[in-house]
Structures are given as structure tokens and as C-alpha cells.
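Researcher: Please generate the 3D structure of the following complex. Treat every line as part of one assembly.
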Amino acid sequence: MSSMEGSNLTIETLKKMFAEGKRFDGRGLADYRDIEVISDISNKAEGSARVKLGKTEVLVGVKLEIGEPYPDSPDKGNLMVSGDLLPIASPRFEAGPPKFKAIELPRLVDRAIRESGMIDFSKLVITPGEKVWTVIIDIYPINDDGNIIDAATIGAVAALKRAKLPALNEKGKIDYDKPATTSLPLSKETAPLTFTFFKLGDSIILDPTREEDEACEGRIALAISKWSDQYMINSCQKGEEMPFSREELERIFDLLPKKYEEINEKLKKFL
Amino acid sequence: MRKINKMAKEKGTFKRPSGRGLAEIRKMTAKVGVVPNADGSAMFSFGDTIAIAAVYGPRQLHPQHMQDPSRGILRVNYDLLSFSVYERKKPGPSRRSQEISKVTEWALLPVLDLKEFPNTVIDVQIYIIQADAGTRTAGINAASLALAHAGIPMKNLICSISVGKQDKNLIVDLDKDEEDFEEGEGATDFPIAKIANSDKYTLLQLDGKIQPDMAKKVLALADKACEEVYEVQKKALKEVIEK
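Model: Done. Output below.
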């Protein structure tokens, strides 16, 4: 893993620049790159989207299947998030069994979507206790230029907003020939966003490029949504070796609501 | 149990089903030297949650291409024993256990000095014998003790605790019943690890709904609880040295 990181010279240069509040591409430390969301990129998926965050690109598709409810929630539909870091997206990604980052990515998006309350699972029941809809979100980056987790959450939200429940035939099976018209039961109020804060030296940055991403010594991914008019952190995961200090965490918690509003505003024209 | 909470809410006071105080940790026990074959080992429990950890190494790392010539590698494996939960857990790693193994590795690394052991691996094995929530935090506390017991150079101990939220109330060290709470804002679990007696946090995970301002209060509660964890850890280490 370590052999894939940038050179020590690059890391030292970045550390110095961040300390002065500068970045190679001229952005401020907390600035995002341009975001673009293109919906309906695959017409066989029940919902889909492609997110571009600078040069990072992630494809997300939603499929809906009929499944059985979990024994501890007989009156609720299910959510499954999966994905892979395919070798198409980066010379760093290899074919074969998933490495840790490929396991972590869908788990983080899962927690953001599930805990935000964006999907009303109680409205995804077909026959109580027997048949429910399983919402499956599949995430595939196709070009990794850093910050895949944040891009993937945007993609998941966009794909869910486009998703339609397939029609059923008289036997209760999915009939793909019939037009699907019913949208998913989604909250009008809230949708989560993930912000991954990266730390190098004493600096904290958002939306790193791959070079910055790989140079960083620590990161913390936080999903945030609005619930009953209050900002809510829905998930958090600290990654890599470098600890975060109390002061840094408090600064991050304070910045979160502002970034949430800012990025939501940018996403409005797409969603 | 849920009824008690409802009644408490109506009266404006909140009580935990177990009768514990809001910041009260379950009974903690720790014992060092529980696996004679290992280079270091320890048990740590929070109430009904029991974790054991064993350290093997530093030892030669194979395959060779995984070796790091600049320092030793820490490799953590966390898992639930199949009988440690009501519904038997299928043996072998799950995505959940792989994630916990990795975040535990990250939680422990900042206090270890592995430069002295190039090309080697230090394996930490953590198993949960009995699970009643807080298994990763108990596992980290046990692993920290086991590493110290193995004589790995450490700057400090790592202490870990889970702080949670039930509806709007912050509580320390959730048990399984409390974790499954569904009323109001539901239950939020916020496992934290930190370097003892410092303000450096090495593990933060969270699942649920919590306001950013309240997250700050969680850190303060965790600090207080980790001081108690640290005392228990220190006592267990002393016991084995004085023997």
C-alpha cells in the first residue's frame, strides 16, 4: 500500500502549501471542485446517475428486487449497498477479491442513506411479513481523482431520486415490459451528503484530488442531513493512522452544516 | 422497558432501563496474561461484553513483498466467536468484522513505535466471547493491554468507550437493549478511542442521528469515561508485573 503513495517530495510540498492555505489547483482548503450530476445513464436500472467531481467520476445505479423482510423488521423494505473499485477507474485498482477500501465505500454510503431517513422503508412493503422491496444501490467509480466517498453519496442520492418501482404482473412478479411510474417513497425534507475531511500535517482539507488524497495522513468521513429542521450527523468514520485533536474535530463539526447548505445549493439544479 | 422510558419522559426525567446513571459505565474487568502461548494477551469486559486479545510478534512477515523495510506492520483481526450472539454468527470474516479490524488497527497505531522492527508483522487477534454491544471498544481496550504486555514499545495506552444517544439523551457505554432503542430520534452509537490523558482521538465511528453541537458534548463524556477505562487498564497491568 505504502509503495503506491506519492513521493516524499510531493507530500512535503503539499504539507507546506496547505499550511499556507494554498493548493496546486488554486482552490481554498475547504473548496469543492465543480460538481456535475447526469441522471438516467442506464435505462435498465430503476434509477441511475453519473457524478463528476472535478475529474473524479462515479456511476451509481439503483435496482429494485422483491425480497423477504428481515425477521426483526417484518414491516419494512430492505436496503443493500454494494460496489467495487474496478480496475477501469485507476491504475491503483486491481481485479480480484475486494480490498479494504472497496469494502468500506459501500458501507459508508449505506450508513449515510439508511440513517438519514431519506427512504421511508415502511412504504416498501408488498405483503406484510412476506414480500418487500429491496433497494439495491451499486456504486462503481470509473475515474478516481480523489474523494470517491463524497461523490458516491451524491450519486446514490441522485439515483434514488430518479428510481421508479417496477410494475408487477398478476402473479406478483416484476414485469419489466409494463411502464414503471411510481417513484420511491423518499423524504421530501432530507437527503444526506458525505464530507470527508483529510488531514496532512496540521491542515485539514476537503475534496482532495488523488494526489492530495494519497498524501494525507488521516481522514474522517461524516454524513450529514437535516431532520425536523435540525442538522444531524448520520455517520462518521475516522480512517488512517493520524489522530484528530479535540480542536480539529470541533472545527469540523462547526463547518459541516455550512458545507451541507453550500453543496446542496450547488446540487439543486441537478436533483 | 420501553414503557419505563416513556414514563420517565413524561415526568421529564430520563432513566436507563438498567438503572445506570447517564455517564455510568458497566462494571469493567481487565486481566492481563490470559493466553499463555501469546507474546502478550489480555481480557477486557464491559458488563456482559467480554473481549480477549492476543499478540504474536514482532515476527517475520510473509509473503516478502508485503514487508515494510522502514518499520513493522500491525495486523489486527477482530471477530465475534460464533456463539457470542443469540443468532449464531457464521464463522469467518464478514464485511463488518473486516471493517472493525481495520479501524482497530488505525486506533492502536498512533501509540506504537514500530521503527525498531523492520520487515516484521505484529499480529493482534481479538475475539469476542460474549457480546452485549460495545464489542469493538472492549476489543481495543484488551488489545492495548495485550500490546503493552507483549513489550511492544508504546508511547501510551489507548482507551476506548462507546457514547450513545437515546432520543435526545446522551448516555455512556450502551448495552444491546439500549442500542436497539427506536423511539424519538432513535439510538445513536458513537464508539471512540483516544490516546490516554490526551486530546488525540484515534477512533471515531458513528451510526444514527446526532446534532453537530451534541457531538462535541460526546467528546467530553468520552474523555471522562476513558479516564476510568485507563485506571482499570493500569491496575490490570500492575497486577501482572507485581506477580
